[in-house]
Amino acid sequence: MKKWISPALLAITFILSAVAHYANWDHTLQFILSSIAVVFVAGFLGRATESVAHYAGQRLGGFLNATFGNAAELIIAFFLVKEGLFDMVKASLTGSIIGNLLLVLGLSIFAGGLKFKVQNFNVTLAGLNGSLMIVAIIALFVPAMFFNTHSITDEDTKLLSLIVAGILIVSYMAWLSFSMITHKKYLEDVTDKKDEVLPNEHAPVWSRNRSILYLILATVMVAFVSEWLVGTLETLTERFGFSELFVGAFLVAIIGNAAEHSAAILLAMKNKMGAAVEIAVGSSLQIALFVAPVLIFASYFMGNTMDIVFTTIELVAIAVAVFIAKSITQDGATNWYEGLLLLVVYLILGVSFYLV
Amino acid sequence: MKKWISPALLAITFILSAVAHYANWDHTLQFILSSIAVVFVAGFLGRATESVAHYAGQRLGGFLNATFGNAAELIIAFFLVKEGLFDMVKASLTGSIIGNLLLVLGLSIFAGGLKFKVQNFNVTLAGLNGSLMIVAIIALFVPAMFFNTHSITDEDTKLLSLIVAGILIVSYMAWLSFSMITHKKYLEDVTDKKDEVLPNEHAPVWSRNRSILYLILATVMVAFVSEWLVGTLETLTERFGFSELFVGAFLVAIIGNAAEHSAAILLAMKNKMGAAVEIAVGSSLQIALFVAPVLIFASYFMGNTMDIVFTTIELVAIAVAVFIAKSITQDGATNWYEGLLLLVVYLILGVSFYLV
Amino acid sequence: MKKWISPALLAITFILSAVAHYANWDHTLQFILSSIAVVFVAGFLGRATESVAHYAGQRLGGFLNATFGNAAELIIAFFLVKEGLFDMVKASLTGSIIGNLLLVLGLSIFAGGLKFKVQNFNVTLAGLNGSLMIVAIIALFVPAMFFNTHSITDEDTKLLSLIVAGILIVSYMAWLSFSMITHKKYLEDVTDKKDEVLPNEHAPVWSRNRSILYLILATVMVAFVSEWLVGTLETLTERFGFSELFVGAFLVAIIGNAAEHSAAILLAMKNKMGAAVEIAVGSSLQIALFVAPVLIFASYFMGNTMDIVFTTIELVAIAVAVFIAKSITQDGATNWYEGLLLLVVYLILGVSFYLV
């Protein structure tokens, strides 16, 4: 692909999406155009983050990667929170987690497995990721359990949500300091020259100031496109009879994660399965341990606290995704059939969410 | 045991069972006689399948083994479906899965463990089996979850059941092509000359035509005996006050799996634990991924679609069996105490099902 | 610390607690004093048991260790059973299990991890412990499931409870004979000279008769102090508005396990992580497989059978603790972040139990 195609497509899709929004074109068309724009803008944001990270040095760079990695999801979710669409926020967080653990990871393992008989990656990091996934489920599951089995007041539910959110953010900060400071080398060793295999490898290295400018520009663009996209969702659910759950958990999630999808699959097909697993699993962990808690605090500061109580089927979907992903990654070896199993579980969940 | 004993016993028990049925003897006696006959006929079917498999070549042979392995359960279940006893079908599928994972595997590990301090088998296949078990639970669990938490119409439930059943059958076909074509050698290596240790080793090698004739004969006999057996169950539940759940999940399942039981235990006592694990775990996977979906399609073609919604305690029983079996097999080493733990879980489930 | 401090503190706290009880001091003060006394008396009981074990020889000694290890919890629970406070019994058993798996294990791994980058212990025993934990959950979970989904009579529930309790005690006896007789050496090898690293290493070796006298004295003291402590709990829940659940699951459990806490953490900081894990995990297994069933039989002989049906949130708390502890220990290596994760889960549960 020629170098100028990507910026051109970025500009065209962004402008088309803007025109569609302000000229108030048909909502279905607006949805399609802003969806396409989100994919390109998210990719641009990813490259800009990489470039800033390059200049910021490894540690701060890693942190920037980690926090901007899910920026598109975070910003989309912010607008959903602002509009008080809490159910769709939770559905889209759910969708993002299961989308990464089942669709992104499944496609990566399947595609990689078609080219390579068995693909290996380090068991230690897989185990650590598995434990973090379990903690993420627990943090979502326990409040819901207490909410469903006890007559807990609305205020206590919100207080509990804020406390749990706080605990998760602290855990996430501790994870950053663990993986980037105290046990940096320990984890670097195990992923075989992690820096080389990260998806960032082909990121453009613009000059420092340009990079920062691009990062600001990309964030602003993501913010706009996300708002345009969110604006169309309600019409969409009405017009096509999709449930909020299905739109949030599948449509929004797939669009918001498009950049990760392609990066992970390309890495897997280059036999860099460790990096592909990290993108998919790491991204879903960020959603649960950082994005979700931040949204709860954001809603609190906006004056209308969103609680952390997910619905039973959302929790089941997340638990199911974690169990199968943990089972498949824990031996540090994958093959095409294991990728297929992840896709099978995604399909079963998708059909179920659609039919409800 | 002399060679002629087995055919003689087969004939005698079959004829006695037939006489009992057509002369309309006491139903309890009919139940006992047809149960004994099922055990022998299932053994005969097993040997006939082996023999045909021998002539059919390894690949087709493996497929025949896989599909005829649970033929007795499948045929018993067909008659239950035909009579519309959907609850008992699901109970017997549940019983077959937990019977294989807890009773067959538990007795094998316990008996083998009394003779050998530690018995080893390959970890890779154990991990793969574990992931398949998780997928099997998910496929049963997700529809039930949606059914119990949402007001989903009867038609949508049946549609979802058919779709999930279709997905499972495709997954099973993919598993066959994975384990018998693309990764045949990979899995053969890990089970140490798999062909030699399979239970099939003592299967008689009759001539080709005779084998096919025997296979047809055995299938017909299983069909008859299964129908006679099923006919007595309702009287049995009425007369002894057993619940359908207990009869389906424990009595029918133990009888239907008798052949696997003895084969797996004998292999374990010969220190061929890998093969014993494969019979027990493989058989339970077949029930969940192939037999159950086929029965749903069969019921659809009979005009009265059985849904895939299992009761909560059936799902709990299956989940419980999968978790403990996965935990015990995943390190690729077993001892007598681990066998005992599986039997303990079976006993707890059995007592609970009996008392309800 | 000078040698005479501990006996002096033991005597002073015991006497103060006695005075507070019989002079009927303020209940909050009584609670504080008897709590402190329990900690010292439990420590004394621990050392006395060690000393008797030393003379009794390894096998019987191991058995004494195992059965007296949780003597304080057992005796506290006896008095709760006697007063018919079944809900608080179950809450305190729950608290003891999660306290050991999350707080004791978490602090040990965290404290050890601050001193050592990675701490290793044997994978085989970790796997076996994991399977036992799963069986423990199943034994608690299955009766509750049947109780909640079926109209099972009160009598049948108690019968089922007694049967399950009997099965668990037999399993525990089998575990003792497995780990101390048939596979003693197998497990000794894997924990690297287990005898040397057990917490017992600094236990005083008094003369034989003195040791037995001390053991009797310590048991009597524990019995008294426990009764005084239990007597204050109800006032405490009334005065401070704590729920029975929170008092039982957090306050009583932390006090009753204080001795284990310090022993395990000290071992972890000496890089004897295998022994620390065994104290924490082994203690929680004893509670589930031995203490809880014994209490059910005790209540039966007292004429008012306590059933084994735990509440949903107790089961969730136990399941959650088992899953994360199993996930973190199963690779046989720990670091400070994994300890933090266990503490995070304990904190989430604690806040939730407090707010309900």
From TrEMBL, chains A, B, C:
Protein's membrane topology: Multi-pass membrane protein
Swiss-Prot/TrEMBL GO biological process terms: intracellular calcium ion homeostasis
Keywords: Antiport, Calcium, Calcium transport, Ion transport, Membrane, Signal, Transmembrane, Transmembrane helix, Transport
Highest taxon in the source lineage: Bacteria
InterPro entries: CaH_exchang, CAX-like, NaCa_Exmemb, NCX_ion-bd_dom_sf
Cellular localisation: Endomembrane system
Main location: membrane
One example GO MF annotation: calcium:proton antiporter activity
GO CC, alphabetical: endomembrane system; membrane
Signal peptide feature range: 1-20
Transmembrane parts of this sequence: 30-48, 60-81, 93-114, 126-147, 159-178, 212-233, 245-267, 279-302, 308-325, 337-355
Domain called Sodium/calcium exchanger membrane region: residue spans: 28-179, 211-349
Any one Pfam family match given in the protein's UniProt record, by short name: Na_Ca_ex
PANTHER family: VACUOLAR CALCIUM ION TRANSPORTER
Family that this chain belongs to: Belongs to the Ca(2+):cation antiporter (CaCA) (TC 2.A.19) family.
Record's function text: Ca(+)/H(+) antiporter that extrudes calcium in exchange for external protons.
Protein name per the record: Ca(2+)/H(+) antiporter
Native species: Paenibacillus albidus
